[in-house]
Specification:
Blueprint (H helix, E strand, L loop, with lengths): L1 H21 L4 H13 L9 E5 L26 H14 L3 E5 L9 H10 L3 E6 L6 H10 L3 E5 L5 H8 L4 H14 L4 E6 L2 H5 L4 H13 L3 E5 L17 H7 L8 E3 L14 E4 L4 E3 L9 E2 L5 H18 L9 H8 L15 H10 L1
Helix pairs in contact: 3-4, 4-5
Bound molecules: iron/sulfur cluster (2 copies).
GO molecular function, one term: metal ion binding
Organism: candidate division TA06 bacterium DG_24
Protein name: Radical SAM core domain-containing protein
Length: 363
């Protein structure tokens, strides 16, 4: 049975990829994809996605936020012009998609113009949002701008539980209203959620089941499920990390084509630094928003030079980490946090016998 589920999941992935760039996309998008495939015949593909941290401002203060330690910090945000330049450089490197991340990206007035810019350049754009600002005017503007997809966070189908985890009363209601507007305008919309330790411990996993049922009821395009990551507010969150057994429990949902998991198998590759690059609101480059380790500053050094350095290092660490989330891998945690790295139990697929022993003893 697990073999069959794995086979189904990679088939689904391959089909989704070819549809993504060829179904209902511009000629320019199709050409960028073909150009990337041709280039891959002679050199490595490079990152597919450029993630832009638009701001550290946000209305919520979610318990699980990977940007938690930075939220509200007073940084000098990259300008719209600088962000456009990054989009152009990543496109030259072969990237096909731009992902606008936060904080809450819609708190910036130039987020929608940037989506329109990426669209004109033939790149697919994704917006991560808590949904609070998705009113009539903005959803229409997003449609006009040619947005490819919205990823909207819903932590639980129960309004009180969602608002509690987001520490903002009333945000569930606004997010649901936003989803309804997106669906009415036929904008691709994915509910982004995570499998919480508390929920997975329950026989029914009612939060997760509830979110999936809610997504179907609202008519979104699917539900994406992440596992908790040992970073941000949960940098010391060993008690929130799932064990292998708990992760496998969540994997039963894969038999539903409506559900996608970040890690369909234990050794599914982490995309950080290899298939995606992340630039923080103030221009620091790292492999993904969950990795607080800076490889360079795009205001001081060209993006491609930093990306190359990062690629080589990430390839090395990810091989050792068995493909899994590198924020749970002891050697990488030491690189990020130094010798006092908060201890997190490595996953069984991670090969580091000596460090594993040290970490386990220290807990
Ligand atoms: S909405 Fe997103 S950025 Fe804002 S606190 Fe929650 S997880 Fe963090
Ligand atoms: S390090 Fe990899 S697996 Fe972990 S959050 Fe980032 S992209 Fe995902």
């Amino acid at each position: 049975m697990p073999g069959m589920i794995e086979g189904l999941s990679s088939l689904r992935h391959a089909r989704a990829l070819s549809r993504r760039y060829f179904h209902d996309t511009s000629l320019l998008t199709k050409w960028l994809y073909i150009r990337r495939q041709l280039r891959k015949l002679v050199r490595r593909g490079g990152p597919i996605q450029l993630w832009l941290g638009m701001t550290y401002r946000c209305q919520c203060r979610c318990v699980h936020c990977c940007q938690g330690p930075y939220l509200g910090s007073d940084v000098s945000e990259l300008s719209e012009e600088q962000l456009r330049e990054l989009i152009d450089i990543s496109r030259r490197l072969g990237a096909l998609e731009v992902v606008l991340f936060g904080g809450e990206p819609l708190l910036r007035h130039d987020t929608i113009p940037l989506i329109a810019y990426a669209h004109r350049r033939g790149m697919l754009s994704h917006l991560f949002t808590n949904g609070i600002l998705l009113d009539e005017e903005r959803t229409h503007a997003l449609k006009e701008a040619g947005l490819f997809r919205v990823n909207i966070s819903i932590d639980a189908a129960d309004a009180e539980e969602h608002d509690k985890r987001r520490r903002l009363p009333g945000c569930y209601e606004k997010a649901i209203a936003g989803i309804e507007r997106l669906v009415a305008l036929n904008i691709r919309c994915i509910i982004w959620t995570y499998a919480s330790k508390r929920d997975v411990a329950q026989k029914n996993m009612s939060d997760l089941r509830g979110v999936i049922a809610l997504g179907k009821e609202l008519g979104v395009n699917g539900v994406y499920v992440c596992f908790p990551v040992a970073t941000g507010n949960w940098a010391c969150g060993q008690h929130e990390m799932l064990t292998l057994e708990e992760r496998n429990r969540v994997r039963v949902f894969q038999s539903d084509p409506f559900v996608e998991l970040e890690f369909p198998e234990e050794t599914s590759p982490c995309r950080g630094g290899i298939r995606m690059l992340y630039v923080s609101p103030d221009g620091r480059l790292s492999p993904c928003p969950c990795i607080p380790y800076i490889y360079g500053d795009v205001r001081e050094e060209p993006l491609d030079a930093i990306a190359k350095r990062m690629w080589n290092e990430m390839l090395h660490y990810q091989r050792q980490a068995g493909g899994q989330c590198i924020m749970q891998y002891p050697a990488y945690r030491r690189l990020v946090y130094g010798d006092d790295a908060p201890a997190i139990t490595p996953l069984p697929c991670m090969q580091e016998p000596e460090s594993t022993a040290t970490t386990e003893q220290s807990e």
